[in-house]
Amino acid sequence: MTTEENQTAVRLVLKALRIEMAEERIPALAESYAQVIAQSHQLRESNTPVPTAPHFDASWSEN
Amino acid sequence: MTVANPNPHPRTIRQTLDQLNRKDLSTAELMTEILTRIQETDEDVYAWLDVRPQHLLDLAVAQDRRRSLDKPTTPLFGIPIGVKDIIDLAGYQTVCNMESREHVDKALRDAEIVHQLRKTGVNFLGKTVTQEAAAGIYSDPCRNPWDISRIPGGSSGGSAAAVANGTALGAFGTDTGGSIRIPAALCGVTGLKPTYGRLSLTGIYPLSPSLDTPGPLANNVADCMALYLGMQGKGDEIDAMWARFGDEAVGLAGIRIGVLTNYFTDNVSADISSAWQRATAHAERMGAEIVECEWNDAYDARIVATHLQRVECGQIHRDLLTSAPDLMGEQLRTRVELGAILPADVWYAALAGRERIKKSIASLYAQHSLDAILVPSTPVTAPAVGDKQVSYPDGTIEDTGVALTRLTQPWNATGQPVFALPSGMDQNGLPIGLSLVGRPDDEWHLADIAHALQLSIQ
């Protein structure tokens, strides 16, 4: 996604969520947004597919 | 521009209890000492928000009367404690340093952990300063007692500064990305982030409920454990607990301590690196086996914690963002704006990632039979107020918020218990902190190791 496309996407999301924002804030927000989405994709590729309840039993009982 | 810390050997809870019980010190004298110190220094340090001197003195006098009649007292009778201002304390506002909550009603009841600790007889001095909504590391307007031109860290900055400055013997903190361990490190006090889920969050303003973890800050490991017991509603175990943490040095034979040679060694100041090596050498001399190992998922662990926090914080404050964004500080607003627009699958990816990370760190502990891991709490000591970036000897520059949370956040993703231990000073006379990371729900074993190490380092 280009910078411009990314900023357009962020504007659309903001509009859908009815969050008003000054235009000068958009570029920085869009850049952070793109960074998080990229990190999230990367994380997803490394993950095993099944998220489970947050407890330690299974992992640590094998120790 | 510094405030000389008058407490190079600060009061500990245990020593103070001994003095009170022997009647070498009265609760009123202790309270007067604390209130005088607050009056003399808090104009500079600004750790406190709402302290009511007459009420506290009346309380102390009543406690002395009870003691003089040899009536039964409770385990922490008369010990002065601070409460971070995102935690409900009955009769006080919980403002969370948020302009939108300036006129919020006073809390009608204590948060659960406050309610439980109150049963031990502590005196709650008042509320301590926090970062706005506990979302950050500056804790403005609070300052570091070791040098008031520097930040105390956050978000439990007021709590750490109060303990370091001798205006409380212990305090409540909360830790979502390092908010107990960072200020503990920067202010030179001891902190415990317990295992995620061990202490109740009821009555605590949320930042990121998947990560939020309350815990104590105090002057040593034993004091932290006494407060931790009290917060759990196990105050009746405190008297017997003190014997476990004697003043005699004990060995660490049979203990295996992991030293991570990647991620936690990147961009760490020379003074902190030296302190870490000294502590490792201390542990080895005490009989511990030092195991050098790598954990390749530390970066992913940080990403997991960051994403969970961003999305959850965004949801919590989204209404404020749409209704009154002008009442939000710049840092909180920026954080919430991003969190509010992220798609839900970022959150699910982070949750799935968290499970992988937990398995990964569990495997590392199992593979090397580790009892604990020792790493720096922060890569730098307290930055100056207003410094948005920190720099390293190799010329690298890093955002201050990123730098201070870089080494703490991975342990929020895993949820493990961590002791933040003061470990000497840097060349500018600022405290250095190390983190001792244990197995989940293994706080007592971790406390034994931390106590032994603390005695040795001191």
What is the secondary structure topology, with strand pairs?
The complex is a heterodimer of chains A (63) and B (458).
Chain A: H1 3-16, H2 26-46, H3 57-61
Helix pairs in contact in A: 1-2
Chain B: H1 13-22, H2 27-45, H3 53-68, E1 80-84, H4 112-118, E2 123-128, H5 157-164, E3 170-175, H6 181-187, E4 190-193, E5 213-218, H7 221-231, H8 238-241, E6 256-260, H9 270-285, E7 289-293, H10 298-316, H11 318-323, H12 330-341, H13 344-367, E8 372-376, E9 389-391, E10 397-399, H14 400-406, H15 409-414, E11 418-425, E12 431-437, H16 443-457
Parallel strand pairs in B: 1-2, 1-3, 6-7, 6-8
Antiparallel strand pairs in B: 3-5, 4-5, 4-11, 8-12, 9-10, 11-12
Helix pairs in contact in B: 2-3, 4-7, 5-6, 10-12, 10-13
What can you see in these coordinates?
By secondary structure, chain A is mostly helical. Chain A is 63% helix and 0% strand. Chain A has 3 helices and no strands. Chain A is elongated, with a radius of gyration of 18 Å. The N and C termini of chain A lie far apart (44 Å). By secondary structure, chain B is of the alpha/beta class. Helices cover 41% and strands 14% of the residues of chain B. Chain B contains 16 helices and 12 strands. In chain B, the strands form 2 sheets. Chain B has a 10-stranded mixed beta sheet with strand order 2-1-3-5-4-11-12-8-6-7, with helices on both faces. A two-stranded antiparallel sheet of chain B has the order 9-10. Chain B starts with 12 loop residues before the first helix and ends with a helix. The model of chain B has no long low-confidence stretch (mean pLDDT 95). The chains are: A mainly alpha (63), B alpha/beta (458).
